[in-house]
Amino acid sequence: MTITDPRIAAAPSRPAAPTSWTTVCRRVDLTPLWGEAALVHGRQVALFLLPDGRLFAVSNQDPATGAHVISRGIVGSRGGRPTIASPLHKDVFDLATGECLTNPDLRLPTWQVHEDADHVIAVAPTRALVAASHGTSDAAGQRAVAALVDAVRTARPELVVADAFVDVQEPDVPTVIDGVHDDQDVTIVPLLLSAGYHVYHDLAETADAAVAEPARAASAPRDVAVSGALGPDPRLADVLARRLEEAGLGDDDTVVLAAAGSSDPRAVDDCHATGALLADRIGREVTVSFISAAEPRVPDAVAAARESAPGRVVVASYLLAPGYFATLAAEAGADATSSPLLTDGDAPPAELVAIVAERFAATSTA
């Protein structure tokens, strides 16, 4: 049965994260262990009531075949995890997370479920998180960024988390968005430390194009949002301070922050804000400098620091991962240079994982 009760369909939607809730049925419309399909803004949703009273909603579209049959699947359990088996090919999916327990290449989009005091049930789509980094040809940098995205997946197992790249590496962001299941909206989280051209132009235009894509004309409309950059954030200053300590920062050392640089003044302002946060964190003045596009350049800032104060000069690398820019920062003439925020072979800082998750959540609930 597909739920199309006009009294239910006419009920107002509920404003909640990540999009408006859509009322679909009442608890009495559901039979334990039997799925029901509901049509929500052009998307089919399969709802399941378990004998213990728990409610789950997933896409009714079978990930392997595209057929809308999941509501006719077999409800079960594996290791305490509630599951649904496709009636077509018997692949088994976790009802809570959408993970396929029989084929790691498949995933069933989940929906959020809300039940009010009158036992009226509403659903809202979950969003996919597209983690968009700049991209690098440096193998260590690639591994470090991939480890961050993997850590976000581990922290948020209920989400689809996909890697994408603005430049250098593949797949690019449009390709990744195109591969996200039709039932899911998308939030692009830039794995960029400052919000410059890539955030305000490249990714914003990509999001607009994905929404307006002619190929989606016959499908349900998809919302694609772009979150803010990772910085500035006090937690990044904490990681920078930790990297400086690892580099042997002394009490009398002068600190120069080395940022990538941008022609966008908003990105430059973000870097200066980070410099101020780091100065507060380590209790000394921090000179902000840039590797490209903005002034002062790192070698000039290091030279000026040597002239203005005795003692060592230490560069704080305000870079996400190892790569060409990290090499340039290390060659700027300082006595010591800290590692980037991410390092190859080490677990990503918990602060960065939390920031990525929070940027996603803040945009998805806006």
UniProtKB/TrEMBL annotation:
Naturally occurring in which organism (per UniProt): Agromyces rhizosphaerae
InterPro entries linked to this entry: CbiX-like, Rieske-like_NirD, Rieske_2Fe-2S, Rieske_2Fe-2S_sf, Sirohydro_Cobaltochel/CbiX
Rieske domain location: 22-122
Coiled-coil ranges (or none): none
Name recorded for this polypeptide: Rieske domain-containing protein
CDD domains: CbiX_SirB_N (cd03416), Rieske_NirD (cd03529)
Cited SUPFAM superfamilies: Chelatase, ISP domain
Biological process terms in GO annotation: nitrate assimilation
Gene3D superfamilies, sorted: 3.40.50.1400, Rieske [2Fe-2S] iron-sulphur domain
GO molecular function, one term: monooxygenase activity
Family matches, as NCBIfam families: nirD_assim_sml (TIGR02378)
Keywords in alphabetical order: 2Fe-2S, Iron, Iron-sulfur, Lyase, Metal-binding, Nitrate assimilation, Oxidoreductase
